[in-house]
Amino acid sequence: MGAGSWGTTFAKVLADAGNDIWLWARRDETAEEINDTRRNGDYVPGVVLPNNLRASSDVAAVLEGAEQVYIAVPAQSLRANLTAWGHLIPADAILVSLMKGVERDTGLRMSEVILQSTQFPESQIVVVSGPNLSQEIAAEQPAASVASSSSKDSAIRVAEASTNSYFTCFRNSDVIGTEFGGILKNLIAVAIGIVNGVGYGENTKASIMTRGLAEISRFAVAYGAQPTTMVGLAGLGDLIATSESPLSRNHKAGEMLGRGYSLREVLKRMSQTAEGLSSVKPVLALAEAKGISMPIVEQVHAVLEGRMDPRDIAPHLTHETDGPVRE
Q1: pTM exceeds cut of 0.90
Q2: From 77's CA, which of 21, 101, 112, 282 has a CA 20 to 30 Å away?
Q3: What kind and span of H or E run contains 144?
Q4: Which Pfam families match (predicted)?
């Protein structure tokens, strides 16, 4: 559900794993291009899509008889989309979130929005997250991800459906950690993009990445995540891929901010959604509710609001230790 870059890429992953796939495209012309030319030039240019992947703008036709429904719409439009077509999802289908964001008004993770909006059992909801840059995966470069659910059976079914010759899907039961890993690393990626745009070097970026991992790990664990998840594919792996790659939308948005563009200008120039920009404020509200210090994310927020010069962003503002303390 969603024919943007990640939705189209993951549909290809599933089709290349031998599944029959329907891809819902909001625009008729996108669906026609996919069916007629085997391409989606606006979002995955140069990639030939498999024949067992068909597209349609007819939501009812796409969802009819679906066994697994993978949702890849912008995070802030998820609730509206589910309100429009959620009732068409077969009652026994597994719902899979491919999104990495926090709902701005409620602070809810995407799986929580799905649970609330559809009333589906938690056991039928799965989150897929990891170091997944769509352009590289669409080009069939080897990659891996994680399927996470409270139900072992649902996670296994999604992992098996998503694994092919170039993409491996592992599984775990830590939905909170897997989901927050994908959400929070976007914020650190924006910070690293900012310092890259300013012109700072590898020392600064490495400091922000490592201190950023500590920061987002504190947050995730406070909300119930398992610490080990944050140093796995859904945490550290995703952070590395998103923070350094020019293919990352969040890194690109940060880079423009670092070069002096305002948030309004960045949003106008971005052709696709950078979820990290809209997640900063609700994440900081969640951090405040638990008394969690997130100085790097706070600095990103200050840059977004124009209260801080990007050149003043620092790896860390406190004097806490890094590593074990020995008396």
Answers
A1: no
A2: 21
A3: strand 143-148
A4: NAD_Gly3P_dh_C (PF07479), NAD_Gly3P_dh_N (PF01210)
